[in-house]
From TrEMBL:
Keyword check for Nucleotide-binding: no
Lineage per the UniProt record: Eukaryota, Metazoa, Chordata, Craniata, Vertebrata
Domain of life: Eukaryota
Record-given protein name: Negative elongation factor B
GO molecular function: translation elongation factor activity
Pfam families: COBRA1 (PF06209)
InterPro entries: COBRA1 (IPR010405)
GO BP term, example: negative regulation of transcription elongation by RNA polymerase II
Region (Disordered): 519-545
Keywords: Elongation factor, Protein biosynthesis
Length: 545
């Protein structure tokens, strides 16, 4: 039996006794021969998949699959069967069903085979994608609530290319491959989840996924996605954190080029523009444009570049409503935004310039001119009722905080208590604000500054919004040593978590309490201090001798 079933090589028969002398079992020898042959077979299968005419090569692989598939559950043969299936562009339906029905086989098969199963099985594909999407959102939230507060490294610091190297984007890209049907399914999942949760991070993923496929030059998908060139151009702007004139014209060309009957593409474009990274770029560019206009003595309505930025902001901010209502029309821009709100922002810039010039002038008897402390009622109203005005207003406040302009910050802060859809208490804004406030660290020692910031703004929402509670604690963890002790004590009481508070708030509060305990001098130190202040023994001076 051994002779009949062994390796039929005449020269081997005389060599095998050597293995016996070394105490090597025949099983071990046969196993190593088997492994070697299997490797050779796997190499051959991969080679067949690339040689000869297309029909012939796949015919060979199909015959091989037919012969070997019955052994698919044998661990030693399974890799060969899986390799054959991997190289077949279309595995027979019957075989796919058998793989799908068996959990272990499904787990073991290559992503190329899974794609063929997924494209006709949306629910199964959804089960695979869902944990990845949850992980993605969690990663974004972890960055926003990170304990490292810095003005240099914030949520928007990583470049688009770096972000696309993230685990989730890479996994999704691999799962989709060149399969347009799977790509469409992922986009459908993202739209549905965006509608259900209003979470803008799904819009980021929509753009990142398309650009990740673009990086791999997967033209099968990029050429059929009507947003590809628009996203590519916007991606370059996000990288520079500014929309320059050339790219602005390019983006305008895409928007103007939406033909009648193809308006549905606006839904996708609005989702790409709703990505926080896009909004951030557009808002920063808007603030920069407004400052330039002040220098040029030009009104906002006379700047086509500024109007285009507003048009894109408006499209991005209207994404949810557009996808929800399925009415694919660009939102109408309110004239007052351009004729009243933006000039008002420009007047704030002028106030700053005037105040700075006044400070430099030699003071006369009438004393220094105070900084304007009131804000026009219309400004507060715009922030409450107009989404785009609110977004631009918030970015202007971030801008003055970054410039360490305490006067302007304290002047405009009261307007943030009530904003459109509570945008001033959104995680992205608070993440950026806390980062920028580190530049005003020394101001935290002043009672007036702390009262305006904490009592006048943060604490108004802490009890009803847990995220605000978390951001304040993050800020204090970073700056507690700058705050006046009396104020710090009252803040510690005000920020104490309630029974309803989540674990994250309790954890942050405990960290803060520990830090404050470490700062308090211990009782031992307190009692020892007087001993250091004993009068020094008088040493007779040479004169008194």
């Amino acid at each position: 039996w051994q002779t009949e079933n062994g390796v039929l090589l005449p020269s081997l028969q005389s060599a095998l006794p050597f293995l016996d002398l070394h105490g090597t079992p025949r099983l071990e020898f046969h196993q190593s021969v088997f492994d070697e042959l299997r490797e050779k077979l796997l190499e051959r299968v991969s080679a067949i998949a690339l040689e000869g005419k297309v029909e012939e090569r796949y015919k060979k692989l199909e015959d091989l699959l037919e012969k070997s598939f019955s052994l698919v559950k044998m661990p030693s043969i399974q890799p060969v069967v899986m390799c054959v299936m991997k190289h077949l562009p279309k595995v027979p339906e019957k075989k796919l069903k058998l793989v799908m029905a068996d959990k272990d086989l499904y787990k073991a098969c290559a992503v190329e085979v899974k794609r063929q199963i997924w494209q006709d099985n949306q629910a199964l594909f959804g089960d695979e994608v869902s944990p990845l999407l949850k992980q993605y959102i969690l990663e974004k939230e972890n960055i926003l609530f990170s304990n490292d507060i810095s003005v240099l490294h914030n949520f928007f610091s990583p470049s688009p290319k770096t972000r696309r190297q993230g685990e989730v984007v890479q996994k999704l890209t691999q799962m989709i491959g060149k399969n347009v049907k799977l790509y469409d399914m992922v986009l459908q999942f993202l739209r549905t989840l965006f509608l259900r949760t209003r979470n803008v991070h799904y819009c980021t993923l929509r753009a990142e996924l398309l650009m990740s496929l673009h990086d791999l030059e997967i033209s099968e998908i990029c050429t059929v996605d009507p947003c590809h060139k628009f996203t590519w151009c916007l991606d370059a702007c996000i990288r520079e954190k500014f929309v320059d004139n050339k790219r602005a014209r390019e983006l305008q060309g895409f928007l103007d080029g939406v033909k009648k009957g193809q308006e549905q593409v606006l839904g996708d474009l609005s989702m790409i523009l709703c990505d926080p990274f896009a909004i951030n770029t557009l808002a920063l560019s808007t603030i920069r444009h407004l400052q330039d206009l002040v220098g040029q003595d030009t009104l906002p309505r006379e700047s086509p570049d500024l109007l285009l930025l507003l048009r894109m902001l408006s499209l991005g901010q209207g994404a949810w409503d557009m996808i929800d209502s399925q009415v694919f029309k660009e939102p109408k821009m309110e004239a007052e935004l351009i004729t009243k709100f933006l000039p008002m922002l420009m007047s704030f810039v002028v106030d700053d310039h005037t105040f700075n010039v006044d400070q430099k002038l030699p003071s006369e008897e009438k004393g220094p001119i105070p900084y304007p402390s009131t804000i026009p009622e219309a400004f507060t109203k715009f922030l409450q009722e107009n989404r785009i005005a609110c977004e631009i207003g918030l970015y202007y406040i971030l801008h003055i905080t970054k410039q360490r302009n305490k006067n302007a910050f304290l002047r405009l802060l009261p307007a943030l208590v009530e904003t459109f859809s509570d945008l001033a208490f959104s995680d992205i804004f608070l993440h950026l604000l806390t980062g920028n406030l580190t530049l005003l660290g020394d101001e935290f020692a002043l009672e007036e500054f702390c009262t305006s910031l904490f009592d006048g703004f943060f604490l108004t929402a802490c009890s009803r919004k847990e995220n605000v509670h978390r951001h304040v604690l993050r800020l204090l963890l970073h700056l507690h040593h700058k705050v006046a002790p009396a104020k710090l004590e009252s803040l510690q009481k005000a920020l104490e978590p309630t029974k309803q508070s989540g674990e994250a708030v309790k954890e942050l509060y405990n960290q803060l309490t520990e830090k404050l305990e470490l700062r308090k001098p211990s009782p031992a130190e307190v009692t020892e201090t007087p001993s250091m202040e004993l009068p020094l023994p008088t040493v007779p001076t040479p004169a008194s001798r």
